Amino acid sequence: MNRLMSVLQQTPKKALQCIEHILYDISEKTLHNIAAILAQKNQQPVETYGNAAGNWTWPVVEYFLHERGMRATQAASGRIWNIDSPSYLKQAPGFVGFIDKDTLDAWAYKQGAWVALDGPKNQKDVYNRFQSGNTVAIHKMWAPLLQFYEKEQAFHITTDDSNWTRYECQPSSLWRPEQVSYEKRDAAVKSFMRAHKKSPILMSNSQEMVIARPGSTGWKTEPILSYECLTIEDASQQVAETIAEKLVRHISTRTGWSAMAHALFSAYHFLGGTLKQDECSLLTDEERDILKKYENGMYKKTTQTTNGK
């Protein structure tokens, strides 16, 4: 750290120049505040992270970037390049630039050319410089998820080391990750199917809907709308409309409206809907008002008779 500070003291306010080169202008006070925060947080002298002359170190720059949704990913260690090539990375919407952690030199791709703190560079010079220092790539952490935020869509995250766990992020909870385990899900599905082994079951996942029917040799599944190439949302709507139409025709000759009413109310309530008493009435607002006044009058008359008046 002392060696790094001595290097930065040769170029005052190098951290400020570094940030402004790849991002935008900021005040010196911002970096002074971050240096104080890091010193207090890590129980270190503030000089560890910067001094009054403005010689801030890499941890200050990294903290500034992270608080604004940007991450520093190790790109090179010496001459060993750890990530995809700069030519490929510069096309990513979340790419910001490169920084040498030791010297705080910075490069950004602007208007079709690589530009360092001291001006434009040709590609050969840039690649040589990338691989001669402790280089990190700066990128916006939220960029891969931006399309889902803009569309108000839920998304799910899985990792290579967790086969049965995923993090489900819903707009209603501001995309707070909820860890859900799907371990032993096969056993749970089989248990449910055994409990309903005498009747068909409508089942769905994120890709398709199927009807499972019990038979003498086990369950047989038949995909629904397998040739229409519909998304699961569109397929669900088509199936729901078809079932509703068939159910109404079916009930017209049998007693089943009660079952349909309870099933529809359960689905409506599950989706957050509410039902008021007046919404189911066949009477007009005026008719209900007349009946309510009549009911109140009868109540008063009954009360007076009971009291002997």
Helix percentage: 40-55%
SSE sequence, one letter per element: HHHHEEEHEEEEHEHEEEHEEEHHH
Radius of gyration: 33 Å
Mean pLDDT: 83
Question: What's the main sheet like?
Answer: 6 strands, antiparallel
The fraction of residues assigned to DSSP E strands is 15-25%
Unreliable stretches covering 5 or more consecutive residues: 2-10
Q: What is the general shape?
A: elongated
Measured distance between first and last alpha carbons: 98 Å
Number of strands: 14
What do these coordinates show?
With 309 residues, this protein is α+β, with helices and mostly antiparallel strands. Among the domains are: 2-141, no CATH class; 232-270, no CATH class; 277-306. The protein has eleven helices and 14 strands. The chain has a six-stranded antiparallel sheet. Strands 9-10-11 form a three-stranded antiparallel sheet, with no helix packed on it. A three-stranded antiparallel sheet has the order 12-13-14. Helix 3 (28-41) crosses helix 4 (58-67). The termini are far apart.
